[in-house]
Amino acid sequence: MSSYPALRLRRTRSAGWSRRMHAETVLTPANLIWPLFVTEGDAVEEPIASLPGVSRWSVDGIVARARDAAAAGIPCLALFPNTPSDLRTEDGGEALNPDNLMCRAIRAIKDAVPEIGVLTDVALDPYTAHGHDGLVDGSGYVRNDETAEILVGQALNQARAGADVIAPSDMMDGRVGLIRAALEDEGFVNVQIMAYAAKYASAFYGPFRDAVGSRGLLKGDKKTYQMDPANAEEALREVALDLDEGADSVMVKPGLPYLDIVRRVKERFEVPVFAYQVSGEYAMIEAAAAAGAGDRDALVLETLMAFRRAGCSGVLSYHALHAARLMGA
Ligand SMILES: NCc1[nH]cc(CCC(=O)O)c1CC(=O)O
Ligand SMILES: [Mg+2]
């Protein structure tokens, strides 16, 4: 009885009710985090050409999107600012301004839609004139310890504005521990840290850099701080350190090409793992759909399910609202 023809794995697949009953993985709107881009002004929507279907919104529009997300069952938003160019400086000082675009968006969301979580990006690239995530020295090298100090200030600035989850995406060594200590000192004991622990120097970030306006500014590349796509053991060390320093959850980024990393992190550490299906991945799906190479909705849901199967608690995805609505339908 243990082999064909009595044994047929197609048997349990033969009807929809049975496929549902045997599904090993579930995907719900609760598994989605929706990244949103904030811009200055009132009633402003700026479409992003390299990210078709995604726009920057002024704060009022961001609040409207927060309502959409909450209604669709999405638990959390991730915010990124497009800082006006006259406020971008060598040291990214605008990141510390309590009234910067980011802080105003956080306050407006927490005021109008308090039931949704707000995750905020800690890194200086939307604020620097050179597009790097930290301070650069004369040779163009991004200085670790001096940057980490500013990132602590940026994280506190976001926490004071009401951020629920601080997400450092800068890849400086040691910053998670410094941020945790500073949050504890100021009494933000329930503000979480989701560390971009294994973030690779990837070619899939192009449309994001358009969205935050750093692409044209960026001098060189980010290979001295983001990881080499060749490395997996190093990702495990990065994760171990961030957990040791107090991260509540860890992120792997980009997403689909790095699901092997997700799986290894999940099996090794048994902690909440998230992944970022980044802008270039979104653009790839949109391009495939536009070219008639695949069905958009099916591509979206299949890829999101793949993250769950690999071990992700959740996925940051620009398709989040669309996907959540598909699931609800
Ligand atoms: N701190 C930068 C940051 N935070 C999130 C992304 C990429 C996200 C995406 O591509 O969707 C990047 C780009 C980069 O490292 O240059
Ligand atoms: Mg690290």
UniProtKB/TrEMBL annotation:
It catalyses: 2 5-aminolevulinate = porphobilinogen + 2 H2O + H(+). It comes from the Bacteria. GO terms for molecular function: porphobilinogen synthase activity. Signal peptide: none annotated. InterPro entries: ALAD, ALAD_AS, Aldolase_TIM. PROSITE patterns: D_ALA_DEHYDRATASE. Pathway: Porphyrin-containing compound metabolism; protoporphyrin-IX biosynthesis; coproporphyrinogen-III from 5-aminolevulinate: step 1/4. Keywords: Heme biosynthesis, Lyase, Porphyrin biosynthesis. Its EC number is 4.2.1.24. Belongs to the ALAD family. Homooctamer. This is Delta-aminolevulinic acid dehydratase. It comes from Sphingomonas plantiphila. The gene is hemB.
